Each structure stands twice: as structure tokens, then as C-alpha cells.
Amino acid sequence: MKKRPVEIMDTTLRDGEQTSGMSFSASEKLTISKLLIEELKIDRIEVASARVSVGEFNAVQNITNWAKSNGYLNKIEILTFLDNGISLEWLLKTGAKVQNLLTKGSLNHLTHQIKKTPKEHFDEINESIFLAKNEGISTNVYLEDWSNGMRNSKEYVFDCLDFLTEQSVDRILLPDTLGILSPSETFNYISEIIKKYPKTHFDFHAHNDYDLSVSNVIESLKAGCHGLHLTVNGMGERAGNAPMASVAAVIRDFTPNIEINLKEESLYKVSKLVSTFTGFRIPANKPIVGENAFTQTAGIHADGDNKKNLYFNDLLPERFGRKRKYALGKTSGKSNIRKNLQELGLTLNDSDLKKVTKRIIELGDKKEKLTADDLPYIISDVLNSSNIKNKVIIKSYILKHTKGINPSAELEIEIDGNLFKEIGNGDGQFNAFMNAINKIYNNKIKLPTLIDYTVTIPRGSNSDSLCETLITWKNEKKEFITRGLDPDQTVSAIKATEKMLNII
């Protein structure tokens, strides 16, 4: 079967940045642009709205300089406005070559927001396209509020399309600006447009207000649209835009006639980086990129996976650079625990496995969060095992924090029976503690990088007497989490760090 190519336009850096409380720095925008184009193989990226700020101008200029030197300049797009050429002038100064011109796709917006007639509006559009062409700038046109236009003023929409299809326009962009469309409406409206203008390139831009963005995207493809607008992690105004990872997976598995350039195995990497830059955490249950997306919890599922992968589907984690996990908690069975023991290179006989399973269920009932890296400690506790010993013991420490003086940590640690002492300074008590640790190890062992640090009151607790610290570490081999529990936040982090030192 010959596949139909469909363009992907990423708008994380423009529409995604309209997420409430969100702002990318210039360096972050450049880094993300590089990853989107070179790592994910995205066809086009919309990186900014014109005239926003001096910082935005500098960010776009950095991107276009990089893109020009690497042959990607025509992949960089800027949202522009009908403002007598002011935003076009802004675009020209940045070095960009493609404008996405914002126009009105509904009679309601035209009449009540800009208070113009269709002819007046079309004259403005014509002028902007003409100016852009004279400057060597390509034009795509957004029909803002197009979905409401199709519902309530279809005649105006088609008058607009009649006009635009006769202009020097590369693409016409059809946004469901308020996320109002049902899948059937999406299919019917785009089918009607494609049938009437078969030689014109149309993109569909979905929003997720009713949680229908992925469904609507798939219906737009069935209707024949030529391009899609997506964002990393579904970022965007209100409920966000169509999420890139979910759409990519659905296209591959449910639309065999469609071909996209996007590189699946890089989705998770880019998703995590964007989450780190923005501070907006990915929901644990988010498809493809969420922490629990490939985690089996029930013991019966792990048992089934041991028996011909009975609980596998086509969404294999390896497609996205991830691994299947088996959760530890009160619903865990022996099969879950065996899977985790295999990962750690440990084995237990049936009798010991029952004891460990019982303890894990007890801890789960108390709502304690467990990871595979907790298993050696649980085994040691339950079995009083002399086989599992801590090779690293933090014997003592003194933490100092005085106003006007950098925090310090005085540390005494035992490594393989040898005692070491060191003092470290830092921006905070835990940072000072880690600096002391690094001095002791002195590059003899490459310590993992701390990539995430969360402190919470243990789940289900109605007391603030205990803090749970979860630290995510990353080394050359893997990413892993260690946990500490203590009334003092810093001490709980130190306990989590001690576990890390015994794992590496």
C-alpha cells in the first residue's frame, strides 16, 4: 500500500507557551528547536508570535541563525498579524522566512472583534501576502475560530477560502480554536473543504477542551488533511493542544495509509526535557510519556506476561525508548516481585518470596511508595539476611545553616569498612552534604546525576511529622529512584542518598 505523507508542525514554542504560567528562555527555545528538528524529525516548527517582547525577538534570532547554518530555515515559522506590516517587519529582522498569518475564520470574530466587512478583511490579507512575497517571505494563513465559522457562518468561510486559494499562499491552517468540534464534525467539515479545493494544502490545528483532540486529529486525516499541528505533552492554552506522543502512536497503529517523518523512539526524551524546562509535570498516567504508562500493577498481569505476554498490546515501551515496569504495592503478586528481582539480578526461593511478598503488601496497605531499588532493603529486613549488606554507611553528619553564611555539612562515612571525613559548602544544607560526598569519592566512582527531587507528606497521612523524599538519579546505565523517610526534610534526602550510594 502506498502511504500518503502528512506534515507535522510542532507549535510547542508558540501555542504551547500559551500554557498559563509558562515561559521559555531563549536558550531553552533553541535547545528544544534543535531536538524537534534533528532528533524528532519534525517537518516544521512554529517558534513564536511576532512583537511579543525583546526576549522573544532574541530567542527567534538565535533559532534562525542556527537553522540557516544547518539548512533548516524554511522549517521555522512565526505567527504574524494584520497590523499594516509591523509584525512582518519584526519577522524580517529575526531572519525568519515563513509567516503564519492570523486571519478571521468566523463571521462572529470578524464582526465583533475587528469590526470589519469581509471585503475589508480580504483587502488587508491581500496586502500582507503581497508585502511578504516582495520580501521573499512565504505565507501560511490561519483561519482563527474556523470551527465556529463552519458551524455558524459557513458561507463566510467558503468566501474566505475562495479568496485565499487564489492568493500566493502555501498552506491554509484550520484551527479548532476553542476545542469545540466532535470527531464527526471534524471529518465532515474537512471532507467538504478538501473536496472543493483538492489542490490546496490544509493543516488541522486541534485543541483539547473536550478531551477529543486525538480523535479529531485522526478524523481530520481520514478526511484528507495534509498537515497536523501538535505540541509536546499536549501543552497549550486552557486544556492544551493535541499531544504529539499520543497522535504519533495512533497514526502508526490505526492509520496504515498515513506516513509521518516523526521518530517515535525520541518522543520520551523530548517530553522529559520539555517537562524539566517548564516545571509542568507530566501526569503519571499520560499515555506514552507518563511515568506509569508502561507499568503493570496487578499481580495477575505480571503472571500473564510471564505466560506468553498475555497483557501486552501494540504499544510496546521499546518503541518509545522505554521499558516495561512492574509496580510494587498491595496488589503485587509473586510474579511482580520476580520481575523486579530479575532486573536486580537477585533470586529467592518460594518460601522467602512469600515472606517478601507479604511485607510488600503490608507496606502497600500503609500507602508507602516502593520501587525496585527498595527491594534489597526489604529483603534484608524480612529475612535478616547477612548476604545483603550496606557497603556504604553514613555514620554521622553535622549540618550548619546560619544567616549570612553559606550552609555547610561535616560528614563521616564508612565505605567498605574504611572511614572517611569531609566538609562541604553549598547553596543549601543538602547541596553542602552532596559536595562533601563528591569530595570523598573524588572521581574514583562517577556518581549519578540528580535529575529530580520531590518532598511530600506520605500519602494518606494526616500528620506532618514525616517527610518522604524521592530522588531520581541518572547514570550511564539507567535512571532510578531512591526514597527516604524522616521527620526532617534534609535527613530524609540524606537517607535516600545513602541508598543511592549502595546501589551504584
Helices, strands, pairings?
Blueprint: E1 4-5, E2 7-10, H1 26-39, E3 44-49, H2 54-69, E4 76-80, H3 86-94, E5 98-104, H4 107-112, H5 118-134, E6 138-144, H6 146-152, H7 154-164, E7 171-175, H8 183-196, E8 202-205, H9 213-223, E9 227-230, H10 244-254, E10 258-259, H11 267-278, E11 295-296, H12 299-306, E12 325-326, H13 334-344, H14 350-365, H15 375-383, E13 392-400, E14 408-415, E15 418-425, H16 429-441, E16 449-456, E17 467-474, E18 479-486, H17 489-503
Parallel strand pairs: 1-10, 2-3, 2-9, 3-4, 4-5, 5-6, 6-7, 7-8, 8-9, 11-12
Antiparallel strand pairs: 13-14, 14-15, 16-17, 17-18
Helix pairs in contact: 1-2, 1-11, 6-7, 8-9, 12-13, 14-15
Report what the structure shows:
This protein has helices at 26-39, 54-69, 86-94, 107-112, 118-134, 146-152, 154-164, 183-196, 213-223, 244-254, 267-278, 299-306, 334-344, 350-365, 375-383, 429-441, 489-503; strands spanning 4-5, 7-10, 44-49, 76-80, 98-104, 138-144, 171-175, 202-205, 227-230, 258-259, 295-296, 325-326, 392-400, 408-415, 418-425, 449-456, 467-474, 479-486. The chain has 504 residues and is an alpha/beta fold. The protein folds into 3 domains: 4-278, Aldolase class I (TIM Barrel, Alpha-Beta Barrel); 295-383, no CATH class; 392-503, Double Stranded RNA Binding Domain, CATH 3.30.160. Helix 1 packs parallel to helix 2 (54-69), helix 12 (299-306) packs across helix 13 and helix 14 (350-365) crosses helix 15 (375-383). 38% of the residues are buried. Mean pLDDT is 86; it is low at 298-307 and 460-464.
Give a concise summary.
This protein is an alpha/beta fold and 504 residues long. The chain contains 17 helices and 18 strands.
